[in-house]
Design brief:
0% strand, mainly alpha, 2 domains
């Protein structure tokens, strides 16, 4: 080997000497010991700090993989379906806790597999990267708002006083927000995917509703005593879940289903009830009867949450969905007496609804609130009063997940709390962050309307119930700060973008004849006959 020729411009590698090898080995051992010490003494919230160099090296290795062109990403879509199905079925606080690892739940396993496969394929296929970009650019306004919101969250990291905590939450958001949106937009452009996923989400919601009905009957979280010990990762938190969540001054039990808090459960139901109504409308026979019972059970459970957000979501759905239905019917058949009467009688119906909400005491309390809700309203007002100076002092935000500590408002149990996501968004991401968030989840109503009006398949008609679900989400965020259901919102947003791409590229068997009655959908085949 000593006589081997080396062609220019290459040079013969110089082997390290014994001292260099010793220093390199000792340095590697010291680095491993240092990492082991950090992982053993640092809390889980700060594990991201030593993990950053490893993640960067992993990302670099993935990026250096050769481009293999077109790839099969079906398993990535399967992971997304499993995640959205387990989202409402499996409680997020029921998990396996292994040392050195985050809580392990079925939904986290599903989204973990989805992310790993997606990143691997993204790094190896420029074809797939182009395909995803084409899908999300089907709705240019939403695409710009999405990346503007992404930029706001990223820039806010500069102003965080607890950078390690903010970075940890930031990376979580990229998994549950950014990647969920991108995957939902891509797979939503595939004919049949949104329809099948919507079916899975409704089945999952029905499981949660059945749990809620039994919980309302027994007035307790009935399944907690039967939870195996290896799934009880936080006994103190489980005790809080089991306790009554009645409002101050009342003893009314509030159903929480498979969620930790009744308010989170109410928001989840309000986001998916329009999709359930879609299936009720477009089903026949025994399936339609079963879905009617499912809808009735959902309404009962929403009422049993004793949350105004649930009733507001139900009212908005009942007001908006019929209007789009009759408006579309009249658009397609202007000579129809029924649809014309429905459109022109709509303003009078809205006046009646408004009068009922204002003057009927029971409806007024359920929608607008009463004396038992005054404490929540007062707390929210106090938070806004205290929060505005902090917002204007940092117009670009205080950093990801810093709003609670920055505001410094505590509840009766001494815990930091914020009662509106709008204030959380302002404190975390700044004024532009809130503006882009509101636009990102309000504008889908327009895109959903356009897709729905010109829908050529039953699947494309899902655009409007999903858009209504996002509108309910935006309204509820005014009185709820939890981010638990935001991944579901990004999934619905991505599906609307995917359906928009479908329509722009003529993904349909044939145009829908004007005035033709809707054909009953078949499981797994949303195309019209």
């Amino acid at each position: 080997m000593a006589n081997t020729l080396v062609l220019k411009p290459y040079v013969r590698r110089r082997e390290p000497g014994p001292i260099s090898r010793f220093v390199a080995g000792a340095g590697l051992i010291a680095l491993a010991a240092f990492y082991g010490l950090m992982c053993s003494v640092m809390p889980m919230q700060l594990i991201m700090v030593p993990a950053v160099p490893i993640l960067l090296m992993t990302a670099l290795c993935l990026w250096l993989l050769p481009d293999i062109g077109e790839v099969n990403v079906d398993r990535v879509g399967g992971g997304l379906i499993w995640y959205l199905g387990m989202f409402g079925v499996w409680p997020s606080y029921v998990a396996i806790d292994l040392p050195g690892l985050p809580w392990i739940t079925p939904s986290r396993v599903a989204i973990g597999v989805m992310i790993l496969l997606a990143l691997l394929n993204l790094s190896m296929s420029s074809w797939w990267r182009r395909e995803i970009w084409q899908r999300i650019n089907a709705a240019p306004a939403l695409n710009r708002l999405f990346w503007a919101f992404f930029a706001c969250t990223t820039i806010s990291l500069v102003f965080s006083t607890s950078l390690s905590f903010s970075i940890n939450k930031y990376f979580n958001n990229q998994v549950y927000w950014t990647m969920v949106f991108l995957m939902a937009a891509y797979f939503g452009s595939r004919p049949g995917f949104v329809y099948r996923t919507a079916q899975v989400m409704i089945v999952a919601m029905m499981v949660a509703v059945i749990v809620g009905i039994n919980e309302a009957r027994l007035q307790e979280v009935f399944w907690l005593p039967y939870l195996p010990s290896f799934l009880q990762v936080d006994p103190e938190f489980l005790e809080r879940v089991a306790k009554s969540q009645a409002r101050a001054g009342t003893d009314v039990y509030r159903v929480r289903g498979t969620f930790a808090v009744s308010l989170y459960f109410a928001e989840y139901l309000a986001m998916l009830v329009p999709t359930l109504i879609y299936f009720v409308i477009n089903s026949t026979g025994m399936r339609k009867l079963a879905l009617y019972f499912a809808l009735a059970g959902t309404v009962v459970v929403m009422y049993e949450t004793n949350a105004r957000s649930a009733m507001v979501g139900l009212l908005l759905t009942a007001v908006i969905y019929p209007f789009f239905t009759v408006w579309r019917a009249r658009h397609r058949n202007p000579t129809s007496v029924t649809s014309t009467a429905g459109v022109f009688s709509y303003p009078a119906a809205m006046v009646v609804v408004a009068l009922l909400v204002i003057f009927w005491r029971r409806a007024h309390v359920m929608i607008l609130g009463g004396g038992q809700h005054q404490a929540s309203s007062d707390a929210r007002d106090a938070q806004w009063t205290s929060g505005w100076p902090k917002v204007f002092s940092h117009p670009l935000g205080h950093g990801v997940a810093r709003s609670g500590e920055v505001l410094g408002y505590t509840n009766l149990d001494g815990e930091l709390t914020i009662d509106t996501f709008y204030l959380s968004c302002l404190l975390d991401y700044g004024l532009l962050g809130l503006f882009t968030f509101l636009g990102l989840f309000s504008l889908p109503m327009w895109f959903g309307y356009r897709v729905y009006m010109d829908a050529r398949t039953k699947e494309q008609e899902l655009a409007i119930p999903m858009a209504i679900g996002l509108f309910n989400f935006v309204v509820i965020k005014a009185v709820l700060s939890s981010e638990g259901n935001i991944p579901l919102a990004f999934a619905l947003l991505g599906f609307i973008v995917g359906l928009t791409w479908q329509q722009k590229h003529g993904v349909a068997a044939a145009p829908v004849p004007a005035g033709a009655p809707p054909a009953p959908p078949r499981l797994g085949n949303p195309r019209r006959a």
